[in-house]
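step=predict obj=Putative alpha-1,2-mannosidase n=768
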Amino acid sequence: MKLRLAAALALSAPTLIASGYDKVDPFIGTGGEGHTFPGAVAPFGMVQLSPDTDTGCQIRDCYSHAAGYRYDDPTIQGFSHTHFSGAGHSDLGDFLVMPVSGDAVPLEPGDPKVPESGYRSRFNHADEVAQPGYYAVTLADAGVRAEMTAGTRVGVHRYAFPAGKAAHLVLDLRSSLYNYPGKILWSSLRLHADGTLTGTRQTRGWAPDRQLFFAIRFSAPLTGHAFVSTEKDVTYKGFQGPGRGSDALAERAGRALVARLDFGQLSQPLEVKVALSSVDEAGALANLDSEAGGFDQIRAATRQAWTQALGAVDLQAPAPMAKSLYTALYHSLLAPSVAGDADGRFRGPDNQVHRADGYTFRSTFSLWDTFRAEHPLLALVQPQQTTSEIVRSLIDSRRYSPDGILPVWQFQGRETWTMIGYHAVPVIADAYLKGIRGFDADAALDAMVASATYAPYGGLGEYQRLGYVPIDREPEAASKTVEYAYDDWTIARMARAMGRIDVAKQFEARAGNWRNSFDPKTGFVRARLASGAFRTPFNPTAINYGSDYTEGNAWQYSWFVPQDQEALFRTMGGDKAAVAKLDAMFDYDNSKLDYSHAEDIAGLIGQYIHGNEPSHHVAYLYDHAGAPWRTQARLTQIVASQYKPTPDGLSGNDDLGQMSAWLFFTGLGFYPVTPGSLQYAIGRPFVERAVLNLPDGKRFTVVADGMAPGNDYVGQVALKGRPLTRSYITHDEIMAGGELRFVMQKLPNKRWGTARSARPYSMSSARE
């Protein structure tokens, strides 16, 4: 009843033809499990300038602060320049800046429970403003109005200090997200004769041996400064340089540096322009010069960039849904982020400096998450150049990888080895099959094959020998087997399209390896031993780190055969058995289960876990079983319970845009269940009208007649004015432009989309 009421309220709210920019709310996901940040960032920007409310925790205790900002925290510790949007693990929070007013300048953040115990400050949400590319807040203890904006490679702060009080900044190089003693390997500060401040930090965090450089210019001259080292028990300090007994040094290096920067009393706000580089200080300085202007000019340019990016779609929807969908699109356009300097140089997986030839290098690849819907969405709403540059970045990353394979989970060019699979492969294949070019297809296919045959990675040696990953040789083996099989299918698809039939046949055979982990006796995908026996004991609801499955269990992973759902359903006993098992998953009674020990397990509807990616395609699988009305009902249930336009409005980590991309596609009425198939499974729309302004100038319009509370089912569908009786549309049909029209009604139409020829792609019955 509560779910239906929530959906009814969302659909009965005033309908808006929304301006994309004005309808984005960056606070969505900053509470609960969303792990998003509210600060300033340009589309795919290198700089994410955002408040950190508390960085005092260590590693796993920091889970709720993975993005630096937590909506329910009472204080702001400072403003740092790098953040992930929605990650389930974290790092970054580089180069924290905090304004301080008056004569006393504390160099420690203090205790959030003890007001004015350090440089952190209390704040009130009523004083906060967050818009795409802009953030502002009043710091109550300092009496400072703080504003942030960002360009592609720069961030700009603006601080209005109270009249009659001296203005200071604290620059804390000790602060970091997911911090721990020893994380800061080295850092440095250097004050140039013209007042420019440069520096660097090397950390051993999620990405080991990560280096980042900065350059800062101020709109007012410094009247004094101190570069302080708080490191204790330094065994060897070297010899004394200039400035004995003083911290007013021209430069300082160490593992625990904090700077005090003095400006005296100011008659106008202080602007602080910061640029980053993964390459060197010269790169940071060049990036600083690459975007001209001060705060207002950078803010205006970024607003225009966001207006254009969000203008990829025009929505007519109830106000809460319009806000949720435009914010979802916004969150989907934050990564993969620019990681190359203005001169084309970037730091690669080998920790060496390289140059991107004719394109911008990008990083922040959360590929286990984003291959599903985030990258397919970018292919629709961004110019082809965006996806082409992503693919070129993946290929060059493989070129410079010490292991010779594509990225797994990479940021700032550095590999973390997080999650499983070789999911750069479907990103590349999907792009190629959609006609996106501008990259070397032969080099791309070579990189895909190299990644899929690299024996030392993730049990691939055993997978190639046995046809599955054995659990007594490799953890999370059941998940790896089915995910590898899907990735293999995408290699085959691209190879066949390129005329590489030998490669296609090899990987088409491997695409069926999911069968080797499916247990027909229990009806679940299970982990097998090297002997061939399934591992026992077996509990399909168990979720444990490093067990048979990756952030999930048998209920979620038994549906991951997106390349051949028809064959999976036959193995399960047919369509009726598959529908019954899907219903059992959603309706499962979890009252006796406890998943509090497991991170990222959130947004449960029975054993369907929307807060994590393995479940994201599952509601659409009723289409594959000839029961699309069940997909429509489940989507209504999921949207009503898992999303809302509030800080706690995401049921799970946004995972660099994947949770948001799911909602955006679903809001339009279709979803890419199988990237690489060039098809989208039809669900039900949550908008009255949406116009996709396609990159080539054409328009694809979605219309939902009869959209009203309680009209949760699709009565009929028409494409370009002709009845559409199948439960999918193709990528080419969208890119050609036209109109997809739904008629919504209260009761399900149990005849529409049921024929076998009407169902979405399965390789067993593919209609090329």
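step=describe
DSSP finds 20 helices and 39 strands in the chain.
step=end
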